[in-house]
Design brief:
The chain has eleven helices and 13 strands. It is of the alpha+beta class. α5 crosses α9.
Length: 345
């Protein structure tokens, strides 16, 4: 995760990734044909809280990493993708969009900054510490970057539709057709562009926004809806149907990112096999077997399909006698106790 995205899917605080009592953490990788990626996180000293990223020895920002090493992550928290809060679905969409189009990460960051400034100004206006005449520049910034984000998300939803439906039909051919739609709080009227629709909605909610001291419409409040034969899955889908839809989403991610340049992304599976029934495990194993490389973590190797263990190498995480841990391996991925990571191919 650090090498492909510059952070973790478990926390947004980089310092939490550094071993307690250590001043820094370093992750290094070498990509084929010969490109080195290095991420260093500092907890202590003059660089405390800072992150240093180098690609081929050249300093880069986190936003540049997805274009260097694309990845698909499947973690237990993804099991809430269908019924969990909208933020989970927005993050899934944003992460995929940034890996397909690096400029998307810039537009999203610009929108975040403009939104924070506009919200601060709305709070100041509510407290009579600023006038409404200060809003137009930040309105324009939110409209420009917000419209770019919405347009990119809509394009991605269109590209995702085919692979998502195909993956779902492969896993559960008798369950119906899976579709995904973008649910905007600034839905365009006939003939309206995303920017015009967002401008109209900002005008409609202007008084309420000043009263609340926050921006009430925009891509930061949009959502996705996964539907099975036209019915929103959040309201009726069984646990098994949810898992099928989520697995189909991840497989669709693999297909879309492979189309970028013909190179399959790196697949990272974080202890998810125990969440899947045998049929769904088998579909995932077949996809893993077709990839150049994948990393799988599990607390027990018996949770992994025997076919997958047969072609994988295993590393085991064991206590080091202090407050940390060390990695043993590689070794054949035979069943054994203790937390492990298996690398296929």
């Amino acid at each position: 995760m650090l090498l492909s995205r510059g952070g973790s899917h478990r926390t947004s605080t980089d310092a939490e990734l550094v071993r307690w009592g250590c001043p820094l953490a370093r992750a290094e990788g070498r990509l084929v044909p010969d490109r080195a990626v290095e991420v260093v996180l500092a907890r202590e000293g003059p660089s405390s809280g800072r992150k240093r990223i180098r690609v081929g020895g050249t300093p880069r920002r986190s936003a540049a990493l997805p274009a260097v090493l694309r990845s698909v992550v499947f973690a237990p928290e993804d099991m809430l993708l269908v019924v969990g809060p909208p933020g989970l679905r927005r993050t899934a969409l944003d992460t995929l969009a940034a890996q397909r189009h690096p400029a998307y990460a810039r537009d999203l960051a610009n929108y975040g900054r403009a939104l924070a400034q506009r919200n601060a100004l709305l709070r100041a206006i509510r407290e009579d510490q600023a006038g409404r005449d200060a809003l137009p520049p930040w309105d324009a910034a939110v409209l420009d970057s917000g419209a770019a984000v919405i347009a990119a998300r809509l394009e991605l939803i269109g590209a995702l539709a085919g692979p998502l439906a195909a993956a779902h039909a492969e896993i559960a051919p008798g369950e119906g057709r899976l579709t995904v739609s973008y649910e905007s709080n600034a839905e365009p009227l006939p003939g309206e562009e995303p920017r015009d629709a967002l401008a109209r909605r900002l005008a409609e909610t202007a008084e309420k926004e000043v009263w609340n001291g926050t921006t009430l419409v925009g891509p930061h409040r949009d959502d996705l809806a996964l539907r099975l034969d036209g019915r929103d899955m959040a309201g009726f889908a069984s646990r098994g149907q949810q898992r099928t839809a989520i697995l189909a989403w991840k497989l669709a991610e693999l297909d879309l990112l492979t189309l970028v340049d013909g190179r399959p992304p790196l697949l990272l599976l974080d202890d998810v096999f125990s969440e899947l029934d045998p049929d769904r495990r088998a579909h995932l194993v077949r996809r893993i077997a077709a990839l150049p490389q994948a990393f799988v973590t599990t607390t027990t190797l018996t949770d992994l399909d025997p076919e997958l263990r047969a072609q994988a190498c295993a590393w085991q995480v064991v206590p080091d006698g202090g407050d940390g841990a060390r990695l043993l391996g590689p070794a054949p991925a035979t069943a054994g106790p203790g937390p492990a990571a298996a690398g296929a191919r």
